[in-house]
Amino acid sequence: MAEGAGKPRILKGRHLLGVAELSIDEITALLDLAEEYASLARRRDRKLNTLRGHTHINLFFEPSTRTQSSFELAGKRLGADVMNMSVKTSSVTKGETLLDTAQTLNAMRPDLLVIRHQHSGAAELLAQKMSCAVINAGDGWHEHPTQALLDALTIRRHRGKLENVTVTICGDIRHSRVARSNILLLTRMGARVRIVGPGPLLPPNAERLGVEVYHRMEPALEGADVVMMLRLQKERMDGAYIPSEREYYRFWGLNEERLKLAKENAIVMHPGPMNRGLEIDSSIADGPRSVIREQVEMGVAVRMAVLDALARNLETEAAA
């Protein structure tokens, strides 16, 4: 794994705001680089100097454990100076706008800014106002590109490819930026994507996304290579989308009996945090087919790849 300047560019753009902007070649290159970084995690000496001299800020307006900690760890393993900005103790709580915050951070001259925000388009707005590279770590209902990349890497490690792999995404598709990014990425890479959930939790005109739409779990799971469960996004629901949690589990929860309908070697995924006994049984979440912990591991590798790729672009611009 080469360090330093002179490495080839992977991404055409200055920022990573969504999967929609990535080409097949860019996705493949990111996954290949992430695969290299995944092997680094198994070594005793995990520290590189790839981002030495770079400042990396994490700005999270929504709570996060996996995403924020993995971005922090990714930056530190690459040798960056990493700052986690606590929104709860910042001027945002005093009424400061996102644009004011952007101007303040811009004055600190960071190289890489990772943002998670409750409003769709927040990352794009910052990208227009900041002189550094901006990475979208989840914005409203819009996208969560690095989650889709780590899910794709996990699937590829188990299936050897993404093309013609049947992926069933189950649950609250409508409110899930994870689902949106996964649908965009997986369909672009040639996977066969099915979505299933209660009618109110499916996006309108879902067929236009290039997916197969189901309204019952059993046919959606039949012969699936990958079963991806989603969390109920209660914080984004402004009404009664389900009769009750008990009824939701009865019809849409993943149990052992339903999982038998998928392929014998099917893997089970979940972006977390999980609601055990609501979306998924603990016996499955902790069982032999679950790759949920591997997803967390791949999250660090993918975020290292993204930080590295965007830093290469900055170095190229500086040298021009």
What this model shows, in words?
There is one protein chain. The chain is α/β, with parallel strands linked by helices. The chain is built from eleven helices and nine strands. The protein has helices spanning 24-40, 66-77, 98-107, 122-129, 145-159, 177-188, 217-221, 245-252, 256-259, 282-285, 292-319, and strands at 55-60, 81-86, 112-117, 133-139, 166-170, 192-196, 212-214, 226-229, 267-269. The strands form two sheets. It has a five-stranded parallel beta sheet. A four-stranded parallel beta sheet has the order 2-1-3-4, with helices on both faces. Strand 3 (112-117), helix 4 and strand 4 (133-139) form a beta-alpha-beta unit. Helix 1 crosses helix 11 (292-319). It is globular. The mean pLDDT is 91.
What gross morphology would you assign? globular
Q: Which structural category do the helix and sheet elements fall into?
A: alpha/beta
Helical residues, percent: 25-40%
Task: Tell me the radius of gyration.
Answer: 20 Å
| Mean pLDDT over the full residue set | 91
Cα distance spanning the termini = 25 Å
N-to-C series of helices and strands: HEHEHEHEHEHEEHEHHEHH
